[in-house]
Amino acid sequence: MKNLWLRIMCATLISATAFSLGASPVLAQSPSSSELQHKVDAYLRNLFAFGPDVKLAVGEFKETGIPGLLETDIALTIGEDKENVKMWVSRDGKFLLRGELNDMSKDMLAENRSRLDLKNAPVTGNPNASISIVEFADFECPVCRNLHEAIRGLLPKYPQARLVFKDYPLEQIHPWARTGALAGRCAYEQDPKAFWKLYDNLYDNQDLISAANAWDKMVDYAGQAGLKTDAFKACMTGPEAAAAVDASIANAKLLNVNSTPTLFVNGRRMVGADPHQLEQFLQYEIQQTSAKKN
Q1: What pairing do the DSSP bridges indicate for beta strands 123-125 and 161-167?
Q2: Which of 43, 64, 98 is a domain's end point?
Q3: Together in a domain, 137 and 283
C-alpha cells in the first residue's frame, strides 16, 4: 500500500514548521496537553484542507528524552484508507516535525534485528547467507507484487542473501489479504518448500483473486503446490494458523511497520518495491563483509 501520508503530502516532510493559524493567540506559556492536541489537529486540517469527513486523532504526548520535544501518534482515516504516523511537537506548540527521529548513540540496525522474530518463518535462499532480507507483505497488495517480481530477479544473483517472509495483511483495505496469509501459513506448516510455490502463485495470479473466490483459489493453489487439500482446509479454519498470522502482525507493529511492503535488509529498513534501492542495500552489505575480512 502506498503510504497515505506520502500521497497527501506529495513526499514532502513537515519539518520544523511554525504554527501560524492566523488570528490564533500566542500562548504566554506552554499549552496543556488538550490544547496542544487541538492545535496540532487544527494545523493539520488547515494545512491539508481536511473536511469533516476526514477523521484525524492526535494521540497522547510522550517524553522523548530531548528537552522541549514531545512525541505523538496521529491516526488518519480517509474513507477506507487508514494510516498511523509518528510526529514530534515542541512543548511550546511552535514546531511540528514529521519524519524520523534517530538516536545516533544507538545502533538502530542492531535494534531492528533484535526485534525481528524469525522463528518458524518461511525462508528461501542460502541458509548460511550473511544477508537476511525480511519481507513484511500482503498478498493482495499491488506494490508487494512488484516487489515479488524484483526479488525473483535479484535473489538468484546474490547467493549471499536469503529471503524471510512475514505476514502483514492490511485487512481494512484488502478484503482477501488475511485469507491469503492463512493459506501461506498452512502451506508452510504442511511443507515449507510448498509455501514458496503458493507465494509465487498468489502474486502471479493476484488479479484473478477476489474476496468472493479467495477460498476456492487458495485450495486450488494448495493442490498445485502438492499439498493435501483436506489437511490444508482444516488448517485454514483452525486456531494455529490464525495465531501465527496475528503474531506476525504484532511483530510488524513492534517494528513500527505501517505500510506494505516493508523490508529489513540486515536490519536496514526499506519501504516500497524499488529494486535499485534493494540492490544498493545488498551490495553495501557485501562490501561491508568483504572489508571486515581484509
Answers
A1: antiparallel
A2: 98
A3: yes
Range of the domain at 58: 4-98
Rounded CA separation 282/279 (Å): 5
All residues at 6 or more sequence positions from 64 whose CB lies less than 8 Å from its CB, including other chains: 70, 71, 88, 101
Q: Look-up: residue for cell 524484483?
A: 150
Q: What is the pTM of this model?
A: 0.77
pLDDT tens-digit readout, 53-77: 999 999 999 999 899 999 999 998 8
Residues 61 and 70: their CA atoms lie apart, in Å, by: 6
- Rounded Cα distance, 146 and 276, in Å: 13
The CATH number that applies at residue 230 is 3.40.30.10
pLDDT in tens, 128-159: 999 999 999 999 999 999 999 999 999 999 99
For residue 281, being part of any structural domain is answered with yes
Which residue matches cell numbers 500482503?
Answer: 138
- CB-count burial class (<10 Å; 0-12, 13-18, 19+) for 141: buried
Domain count, the chain: 2
